[in-house]
Amino acid sequence: MAPKGYSRLQIALHWVVLPLIAVNLVFEDWIETAWEQVEHGGPALYDAGALAHIGVGVAVLVLALWRLGLRLGRGVPDLPAGNPPLMRVAAHLGHWALYAAMIGVPVVGLMAWFGGSEDLAELHELGKPVFILLVAGHVAAAVWHQVVLKDGLMARMKRAG
Amino acid sequence: MLRHSLPVFLPLALILSVAGVAYTVTMGHLDPQRLVAAALTGAVLALGVTPLMLRARE
Ligand code: HEM
Ligand code: HEM
């Protein structure tokens, strides 16, 4: 049986990831100096910027895996009843795509960094538009629920149930 | 909780550390700093994978 709401831990993990992803998107050049050195065949350089980008990214990955474990174990509440089927499909796809990005983007970043691979680095850079599009769509959907449907969906990510 | 997860976490940390080092070496990088970092990262990732493994066993 699906739980009635998200647990406190699930809610905390949902919101903690938001500033972490934002930091790596906004301060994307933190890792630039170190990466240029790797590209020129030098040893990996762990300056403050590289450590910050990698630390934040690995945190996103670990927290996303933890959340996935909770989702598969405890479960998540059913989508609001009465939403048209197409909307339910979109919500499911959107949520799984967010998980895929939270896991895929840092994993590819790690593989680029430790493997010194420029191809993987370019793939990793795609993470930026992917996150922006997915999160923009996600936030638009949340606002739609709040303002147009007025079904109180937002409250589910604020109060544990 | 800890008694439950440690037997999963420790071998997982070892496996992921070795995997990180193996990947780094395979890609042709032998500098010690990068190898140590790869091993540490593998251990940290085990933190995230442990809950998933515990679910899978239930
Ligand atoms: C959710 C986590 C992450 C996000 C959102 C993220 C985002 C970004 C962004 C926006 C860039 C700049 C791309 C550009 O220059 O156009 C970048 C570069 C880079 N990131 Fe990440 N990153 C994440 C995690 C990681 C992790 C865990 C690593 C592991 C070491 C990593 C390694 C790199 C590297 C090596 C570059 C330089 C690539 C280049 O400039 O070509 N990232 N990242
Ligand atoms: C201002 C930003 C955000 C708002 C307003 C927001 C709002 C919400 C709301 C209201 C839900 C609950 C949906 C339901 O009850 O069915 C939800 C779920 C979800 N959100 Fe967000 N969110 C935001 C940012 C993010 C970010 C940055 C991510 C990840 C990159 C994310 C990933 C998810 C996922 C995967 C779910 C599905 C439930 C789960 O598995 O935890 N959200 N969000």
Tell me what you see in this structure.
Chain B: This is CTP synthetase. Chain B: It comes from Paragemmobacter amnigenus. Chain A has helices at residues 8-26, 32-39, 48-73, 85-115, 118-125, 127-149, 153-156. With 161 residues, chain A is mainly α. Chain A has a single domain (8-157), classed as Fumarate Reductase Cytochrome B subunit (Up-down Bundle), CATH 1.20.950. The model of chain A has no long low-confidence stretch (mean pLDDT 94). By secondary structure, chain B is mostly helical. Chain B is built from 2 helices and no strands. Chain B has helices at residues 2-26, 32-57. Chain A binds chain B through residues 43-44, 46, 54, 58, 61-66, 68-70, 72-73, 110-111, 114-117, and chain B through 20, 23-24, 27-29, 31, 33-34, 37-38, 41, 44-45, 47-49, 51-52, 54-55, 58. Bound molecules: protoporphyrin IX containing FE (HEM) (2 copies). One protoporphyrin IX containing FE binds at residues 10, 14, 17-18, 21, 67, 71, 76, 79, 95, 98-99, 102, 135, 138-139, 142, 153-154, 156-157 of chain A.
